[in-house]
Amino acid sequence: MKEVALCFLNLFIFIFGWVLLPVLETTFCNVSLKNPLILASGILGLNKNNLLRAQRGGAGAVTIKSVSLEERSGHETPNIAFFEAGMLNAFGYCNPGIEEALKEFSDLSCFEVPVIASCTASNASDFAKLVEALDKLDFAAIELPLSCPHTPGHGLLVGQGTPEATKEIVEACRKKTKKPLLVKINASLPGIAEIALAAEKAGANAITCSNTLGPGMVIDINSTKPVLAFKVGGVSGHAIRPIVVRSVYDLYERIKIPIIGLGGISRGEHVIELLMAGASCVGIGTAIALRGHNVFEKCCNEMLGWMKKHGYKSIEELIGLAHE
Amino acid sequence: MNEFAKHKIKEARILKIEQETPTVKTFELGVSLDAVPGQFVMVWLPRVAEKPFTLIKTGNTIAITVKKRGGFTEKLFQLKEGSYLGIRGPYGKGFTWNGVKKACIVAGGIGTAALLRLVEELAKNKASVDFVADFKTKSEILFKERIEKVANLHIITEDGSFGTKGFCPDFLMGFLKKNEYDKLYCCGPELMMVKVLELCKKFDLKAEFAVERYMKCAVGLCGQCCLDEWLVCRDGPVLSSEQLLKSKEFGKFYYLKSGKKVAIQ
Question: What is the DSSP letter of B110?
């Protein structure tokens, strides 16, 4: 009799526990995601094999490395430089060009998670050409990084980080696709809300905040020279997280479209912090260098552990919680 | 907790330069570092570039052996003792030799450098090693004395100016017919490694290969050095015969600096 009672008690605990378990599934721009963690553009993403690695590592969605109209070799090495609280990179948009990308990504059936495209150009009409080409493939969304801090002719270095340029580029791209358009901005800039509002008004479906900050510089004092071949590069890693949290918090109060928060995220607790600031999804990139390609899975487990302990059951409950 | 700092550039000035052959130099660098044979470091020449190199010596000082073949190595060859170099690393996965009692090592040209510390580790474990080394010509033979001390060295030259004349995989075939090995290790030109891999399959022999791809970040972020699903910087440079037998790109394709996929000639 005692054993039967114990058995029932165990069953009860099991069912009760299962009902209470938090879930990480969410939707973003009408796309279902098994978790809110997205492989950031520029990390891996040169080809499908690279992206599959992030999928195996547990990413909820993956983003390709930005493609341009022409093949680009990018900057000379060193392309990355480390410091105590993060990393600088200046790859200079190396990519095989749109023609090769269209071949490589023509069949996305090997992916169980959504694949997001990304493209870069120097002006609105080239952006529109790229979006028109990418629109024909099975990408779940297209990201426009108008914010790279280290490539001449692209992003901040060609003046794309203004409300006017953002409006012009997003409007030109909006005409070429019905897919969700994500506009990636740079939290280094003053007045990011105005840029995000311009993107929203021009038809963007979400804001990705942020690109790498800066640019910054690391000098190796023993050789007296900057480490990066391009001398300056975008800053990522732990150091930029508080700036990204603040930027996402500010944007959440100003814009209606959802936000992908990105920058300095390497643990599940960081993801939760950014969700509370107002992000609907969270990008991960540099943290792969610290925790391996399964950093997504590790973050998910940490999130589930924290949510269980604190009684949260869904991602939606956490989004914007810091504003209440 | 400071996980980023370990990747910072370390000063590694040149202590000693040795001309190994007309086209190969060894640079001993003043930095203390431990690494598994097969692992590599990124070597930075300020305002020039940063490239991956295998280590032929670790400990209180390290050493790299370099073949002159392009802009970076030409600049490196102009440097003098005392010149500044920076390094970061070690990176990647090295060779494994646990329980290996009898090994065959197959080296092609400068690939010998990647296998030098391995053969010495095997010897320390009292493994018997047949070391087959393939060089273009007599003057390009590398590390002859150092290898002869610890292994049975069989030198092949393509022009027959020393040792056996011929092509390494042909020679190896006869060797594998006569001997049974626990494991084979190989590093050399990729098309040679493909032939050696085919032989390993034929003789059902477990093997490890040190492979090379154009590399940028070395920490698994940029994806530039991919070989099928693997990243040479993180899963390699040492890959197993099981992995490479599944590969669609080994011996066939590699990626340019732009990430464009091109066929190996």
Answer: G
Interface residues on B facing A, Cβ-Cβ cutoff 8 A: 2-5, 7-9, 11, 42, 44, 46-47, 49-51, 84, 86, 88, 216-217, 219-224, 226, 228-229, 231, 234, 255-261
Query: pLDDT (tens digit, 9 = 90+) per residue, A143-176?
Result: 999 999 999 999 999 899 999 999 999 999 999 9
Contact residues, chain A, for B261 at CB < 8 Å:
47, 96, 100, 104
A205 in a structural domain: yes
Query: What b/e sequence results for B224-247 when a residue is b if at least 16 CB atoms lie within 10 Å of its CB, and e otherwise?
Result: bbbbbbbbbbbbbbbbebebbeeb
Geometric angle at alpha carbon A116, from B254 and A254, rounded to 5° = 140
Q: Which domains does chain B have, with CATH numbers?
A: 5-91 (2.40.30.10), 102-263 (3.40.50.80)
Spacing of C-alpha A112 from chain mean position: 18
Give the other-Cβ count within 10 Å of A308's Cβ: 14
**How much is the pTM?**
0.94
- CB distance B4–A83 less than 8 Å? yes
**Domain range for residue A144?**
27-323
Q: Is A119 a catalytic residue?
A: no
Q: What percent of chain B has pLDDT over 70?
A: 99
Q: Of B216, B220, B228, which is closest to A289 when you measure between CB atoms?
A: B220
Contacts of B30 in chain A (CB under 8 A): none
Q: For residue B216, what are its two tokens?
A: 């940028």
Contact A78 B5 (CB under 8 A): no
Of A166, A98, A154, A95, the C-alpha closest to A131 is A98
Instruction: Identify from B42, B51, B79, B224 which residue to disrupt to test chain A contact, counting A C-beta atoms within 10 A and taking the largest count.
Output: B224
- Which whole number is the average pLDDT over A253-279? 98
For residue A20, being part of any structural domain is answered with no
Q: What is the ipTM of this complex?
A: 0.94
d(CA A254, CA A30): 21
CB contact, 8 Å: A286 with chain B?
Answer: yes
**φ/ψ of residue A240, rounded to 5:** -95, -5
Per-residue pLDDT at A48 exceeds 90: yes
Positions in chain B whose pLDDT score sits under 70 = 1-2
Looking at residue A51, its pLDDT comes to 97
Q: Quick check: A238 contacting B, CB < 8 Å? A: yes
Tell me how many domains chain A contains.
1
H or E stretch at A209: strand A206-209
Contacts B9 to A, Cβ<8 Å: 81-82, 220, 227
The confidence score (pLDDT) of residue B175 equals 86
